[in-house]
Design a protein that fits this description.
443 residues, alpha/beta, Rossmann fold, GMP Synthetase, Chain A, domain 3, 6-stranded mixed β-sheet, GTPase_Der, ribosome biogenesis, nucleotide-binding
Length: 443
């Protein structure tokens, strides 16, 4: 699983700037005043081949007992609980404060791996200004400048090395060959644990009519018709404003990790509640992760014909980007509709790992161009020449040619439809990339 790094500290020390450096994005809003970040903010980073999840937090006041600062403290405490390593950021220019002592004492009490980061330390590497931070008792002070990028890479390497994580090769060896990792994801109380219990034929997981019963991602081995599965029951994902209770402190990050580590994800919806914005957010994360996907509407037996029409309409409206995924209506409690569901899950897994030869892809591309040429871009019309497969899970198709970077999104969707039909790519996202040929005489 991807390691988790949490960035904590008092307000306005540069936590969000450091977050943006790690994720190579501008996802976190940065401004020169305190208290801008309030909720936890999750992002993905990469250092070489090593990937990680980073959490940006609001200004931390461990002793806050009222108002927005109390809620911000709860968010930060949950981020620390979810993290494998904590980066405690202080302001090298403003110096040590009483609030820094409170945070350091809180981290020492937890016994969590923590690195002390002195931000805004440009020009201070040899200076005595950093000496005062040693009294926090958290070991060496690591000077960085998040705004200028100084020392950020070394800090990240140190944070990841401190975890003693297995290499990618070791991780692959520990995964049993031929086992399909199936994650069941969805909002709280949609019936994820009930569905897995029904598959297993025993009360293996706690299923109770109260949201938040599952606190962690639970893995259960399972075999069906000779195919081995690893069933992963994930904790339900809630809206940001509702992830305060300690019972859910692990749910968000564990669910995100379980989805990314899975081969196939079953997105479970609740027919009695319809499709919510949160369902769409979870579906979007699954697609962004590139995981094969099947959608199932649970508790279908508990709604009448009018409610069923409403659910179908809300799916067409809010989950229109999941047209590639197969949809099933089931009742986990009454064991209805579960047979066809397995067929779709295996089909989606096969599609995610399908091998497509370059001659076949090029033939399909040329036939598509003959059927409908791309629109002109200025004086020139893009000319796709050939295509090859650039990856699996999800399948990636790389199109080469002249000016292909000007292919419109509509034309890429047209090509995607042709490729899906030709190679039976049902239940998996498909990514199309373009690479324009270089003209050696351009200079």
């Amino acid at each position: 699983m991807k390691p988790v790094i949490a960035i904590v500290g008092r307000p306005n020390v540069g936590k969000s700037t450091l977050f943006n450096r790690f994720t190579k994005s501008r996802d976190a809003i940065v401004a020169d005043f305190a208290g801008l970040t309030r909720d936890r903010h999750y992002g993905h980073g990469r250092l070489g081949k090593r990937e990680f999840i980073v959490i940006d937090t609001g200004g931390f006041e461990p002793e806050a007992d009222a108002g927005i600062y109390k809620e911000m403290a709860k968010q930060t405490q949950q981020a620390v609980a979810e993290a494998d390593v904590v980066l405690f950021v202080v302001d090298a220019r403003a110096g040590l404060s009483g609030q820094d002592h409170d945070i350091a004492e809180y981290l020492r009490r937890l016994g969590k791996t923590a690195l002390l980061v002195a931000n805004k330390a440009e020009g201070m590497r040899e200076g005595a200004q950093l000496a005062e931070f040693y009294e926090l008792g958290l070991g060496d002070v690591l000077p960085v400048s998040a705004a200028h990028g100084q020392g950020v890479r070394s800090l990240l390497e140190l944070a990841l090395d401190s975890l003693n994580l297995p290499s990618d090769e070791d991780a692959e060896e520990t995964q049993e060959e031929g086992v399909i990792r199936l994650a069941v994801a969805g909002r709280p109380n949609v019936g994820k644990s009930t569905l897995i219990n029904t598959w297993l034929g025993e009360e293996r997981l706690v299923a109770f009519d109260m949201p938040g019963t599952t606190r962690d991602a639970i893995s259960v081995p399972f075999e069906r018709e000779g195919q081995k599965f690893e069933l992963i029951d994930t904790a339900g994902l809630r809206r940001k404003g509702r992830v305060f209770e300690a019972i859910e402190k692990f749910s968000v990050v564990k669910t995100l990790q379980a989805i990314e580590d899975a081969n196939v994800v079953l997105l479970l919806l609740d027919a009695t509640q319809g499709v919510t914005d949160q369902d769409a957010h979870i579906a979007g994360f699954i697609v962004d992760s590139g995981r094969a996907l099947v959608v199932a509407i649970n508790k279908w037996d508990a709604v009448d014909s009018y409610q069923r029409e409403q659910v179908q309409a809300s799916i067409d409206k809010r989950l229109a980007f999941l047209k590639f995924a197969q949809l099933h209506t089931i009742s986990a409690q009454k064991r209805q509709g579960l047979g066809p569901l397995w067929g779709s899950l295996t089909r989606a897994h096969k599609a995610a790992y399908r091998k497509m030869s370059t001659p076949q892809l090029t033939r399909q591309l040329q036939e598509a161009v003959q059927f409908q040429q791309p629109k002109r871009a200025g004086m020139f019309r893009p000319k796709p020449r050939y295509a090859h497969q650039g990856g699996m899970n999800p399948p990636v198709i790389v199109i080469h040619g002249n000016s292909v970077e000007h292919l419109t999104d509509a034309y890429k969707r047209f090509l995607e439809g042709r490729f899906r039909q030709a190679f039976d790519l049902v239940g998996t996202p498909l990514r199309i990339e373009t690479k324009t040929s270089h003209n050696p005489y351009a200079d």
